[in-house]
Structure formats: structure tokens, C-alpha cells
Amino acid sequence: MCVDNVEYNLIALEAFLTMMKEKHETYVDPEKALLAFEKSLNKKCCNKGYTFIITDIFMPVLNGFDLSKKMLELHQKKRMEDRTFKNAELTIVAVTASEDDEVEKKALKAGITKVIMKPLIHSKCVKIVDKYFKKNVVR
């Protein structure tokens, strides 16, 4: 799942993930992304929710810090309630144009796994996918 209130940024992320053959959905509205995330946790079939989230940090209405906290809370609650979900992992990568060190500290405190700087560089994105998905990627 990719969340960014700037549609242009989503187009770039979508192009990258499509090229990497990663299944994904994009959301301009973080509140709608949160609803989709919650709904995915309650599916009865084979899919047990999203495992990888890319979110912008600075968005109106619901910022990336709060979005991540809420997603992680929902994910943890599901892990506690559903034994089949016990080992499910959730990786959240935040993207930002801010160079303020406090932003990264606040992101990590919110439970965000990794913070990367905009503009997104292809090689940096490949490394993130390789590291957190641990699979071979065709480059």
C-alpha cells in the first residue's frame, strides 16, 4: 500500500512497484488508506492484510506518524486475537523531503521501520524492497 496526498508522488511509486512486479494499491487520502488497511485485516480468505506500507509523513488531516501508529495498533490487535495471524509482519517505510533529524526520530518512535528521503532514487527503493521482502528482484 502506498499513501501520499500528492498524486504525482503516487504515480512515481506506482511505476516503481509495477516494474518490481509488486502487488499494490495507492491512496491519496490517508483516512481511506486506514479504512482499507483495517478491512484487509478482517478478510476471511487467504490474504491476511497488508505487509508493506509506504507513506508520506507530512499529509493534511492524518499525517504519516499518526497513520502508522493506528495501522500498527490495528495490526497488533489482530495478532493478539487471531492465532493464524501471530507471525504476520508489518513493515512501514516513510518518505519525506524533510532533512530534520527530529523527523526521523519521531518516525521511528511511531513504529515506522525506515525513513527514506525524497526524491526517491530507484537503486535506494530496490534496496528497501530487497531488504524487507527478502526476495530476488529483477532489475
Brief write-up:
With 139 residues, the chain is of the alpha/beta class. The protein has five helices and five strands; from the N terminus they run βαβαβαβαβα. The protein has helices at residues 7-19, 30-41, 64-81, 101-109, 122-133, and strands at residues 2-3, 26-27, 52-56, 91-96, 114-117.
Write out key terms for the chains shown.
five-stranded parallel β-sheet, Rossmann fold, alpha/beta, disordered C terminus
Outline the secondary-structure elements.
Elements: E1 2-3, H1 7-19, E2 26-27, H2 30-41, E3 52-56, H3 64-81, E4 91-96, H4 101-109, E5 114-117, H5 122-133
Parallel strand pairs: 1-2, 1-3, 3-4, 4-5
Number of strands: 5
Helix content: 40-55%
Globally, the shape reads globular
User: Might you state the CATH topology name?
Assistant: Rossmann fold
Rounded mean pLDDT is 84
Query: What is the rounded distance between the termini?
Result: 21 Å
User: Which class in CATH terms?
Assistant: Alpha Beta
Helix/strand/pairing category: alpha/beta
The total domain count is 1
Low-confidence stretches: 134-139
Helix segment tally: 5
Strand order of the largest sheet: 2-1-3-4-5
Order of helices and strands: EHEHEHEHEH
Content of β-strand = 5-15%
Characterize the structure shown.
This protein has 139 residues and is α/β, with parallel strands linked by helices. The protein has a single domain (2-120), classed as Response regulator (Rossmann fold, 3-Layer(aba) Sandwich). Helix content is 46%, strand content 14%. A 5-stranded parallel β-sheet has the order 2-1-3-4-5, sandwiched between helices. Helix 3 links the parallel strand 3 (52-56) and strand 4. The chain is globular, with a radius of gyration of 15 Å. Residues 134-139 have low confidence and may be disordered.
